[in-house]
């Protein structure tokens, strides 16, 4: 078995093309990485804005639930008054009396 130790112009061209291709890949990937970093920064700001919006939405939904509970209680009191049960005020009578 004989090993050929000569270096030809073809070998040099092959080495140069491999190294040049590697540099080209690194340079192209560097640009892509910069673009991805910018996209990630934009994505972080968008997520932050969405988080704030969802926090506001949660507060609003809580307020709506509290208002709904108040309306239900008020409707119940109005129904009781319509049926003659409740606080009566007239001349000489001041208090809650059954009908």
**What best-fitting shape do the alpha-carbon axes yield?**
rod-shaped
Structural class by SSE content: mainly alpha
Low-confidence spans: none
| Helicity level | over 70%
Number of extended strands:
2
Describe the structure.
- This protein is mainly α.
- The protein has one domain (9-84).
- It is 75% helix and 8% strand.
- The protein is built from one helix and two strands; from the N terminus they run αββ.
- The chain has one helix at 9-82; strands at 87-90, 93-96.
- Strands 1-2 form a two-stranded antiparallel ribbon.
- A hairpin with a 2-residue loop joins strand 1 and strand 2.
- The longest helix is centred in the middle third of the chain and has 74 residues, at 9-82.
- It is rod-shaped and about 125 Å long.
- The mean pLDDT is 84.
Indicate the topology.
Layout: H1 9-82, E1 87-90, E2 93-96
Antiparallel strand pairs: 1-2
Short summary:
This protein has one helix at residues 9-82, and strands at 87-90, 93-96.
Question: What key attributes describe this structure?
Answer:
single chain; 1 helix; 75% helix
